[in-house]
Write a structure and sequence with these properties.
alpha/beta, Rossmann fold, 12 strands
Length: 287
């Protein structure tokens, strides 16, 4: 099928394009080729590509920058998603729009399922992405909202790449937050799940596409250093010790209930996905 990918220069979009090329006709368009905030730009891109499916990756994802540029965050994440949803509906295309764990407030003491109420986001980023989800649901009935979190992937940028860069031997000790819990997720695993979703055109609704298992950022950092064979000292700290402009949810864990309900392949455990990625990206760990 003909697939249009927005935000085509981003880490997730690049992984998706590489995974789908060869099987499908893929057009991964960057901001210069499709400005999602500009409805006319969106219409031109759709007229040229004539997509049968749309993977909407374009977003303002700089969480802390969103706090100081709220208008731009909502323009991209809400209005941009509305424009893509309307164009997808008009083109008769199936829309897969990517969202985030940050749409939740993180107050639950268990993983959030697709059936838990979102919308209590702690940050501008989370609120704008929730507004984008609502725009997708209203604008294009033939949609999937795919929530992902704690992403890393080929080429970065990501937390994993940052840890590898910081562990260059010049820093005796790194402090990493240990009171935020989530599902570290490889874009390679997300791409496999998206391929499975594309093969089931009847599926609609919200799907969580994060890796299984949970970790804190501190635990993820330790796993990265262990796989890389780096003797980097790392110390746990609290979110209060590492203040940032945007509040992060303490609990970002997502349950993959919809995958199980529809008999789709389960997501890999985050430790297995990380080991595969480290071998491919940095030549370390195990394949």
């Amino acid at each position: 099928m003909r697939i249009l990918i927005t935000g085509g220069r981003g880490m997730l979009a690049r992984t998706l394009a590489k995974a789908l090329e060869g099987q499908h006709e893929v057009a991964a368009l960057g901001h210069g080729e499709i400005d999602v905030v500009d409805a006319a730009s969106v219409a031109r891109a759709f007229a040229e590509v004539r997509p049968e499916a749309v993977l909407h990756c374009a977003a303002m994802t700089q969480v802390d920058k969103c706090e100081s540029e709220e208008g731009q965050a909502f323009a991209v994440n809400e209005q941009g998603s509305a424009n893509i949803a309307h164009a997808s509906r008009n083109a008769g295309a199936r829309l897969v729009a990517f969202s985030t764990d940050y749409v939740f407030d993180g107050a639950l003491d268990r993983p959030y399922s697709e059936f838990d109420q979102a919308g209590g986001a702690l940050s501008v980023y989370g609120r704008s992405k929730w507004a984008g989800e609502c725009a997708v649901r209203l604008g294009c009935p033939n949609h999937v909202v795919a929530r992902v979190s704690w992403l890393y992937g080929p080429g970065g940028p990501s937390f994993v790449h940052t840890m590898m860069r910081l562990a260059d031997g010049t820093r005796p000790l790194l402090k990493v937050v240990d009171d935020q819990h989530g599902n570290p997720t490889s874009t390679l695993a997300v791409a496999s799940a998206v391929k499975a979703l594309l093969e089931r055109p009847e599926l609609r609704g919200t799907f969580h596409l994060t890796c299984e298992g949970e970790a804190t950022w501190f635990e993820l950092a330790k796993a990265v250093f262990a796989l890389a064979g780096k003797d980097q000292q790392v110390q746990a700290c609290t979110s209060e010790e590492y203040p940032l402009p945007a509040r992060r949810p303490a609990n970002s864990r997502l349950e993959k209930r919809m995958l199980a309900l529809y008999g789709l392949p389960p997501m890999p455990h985050w430790r297995d996905a990380l080991a595969e990625f480290m071998a491919l990206e940095f030549g370390c760990g195990r394949a």
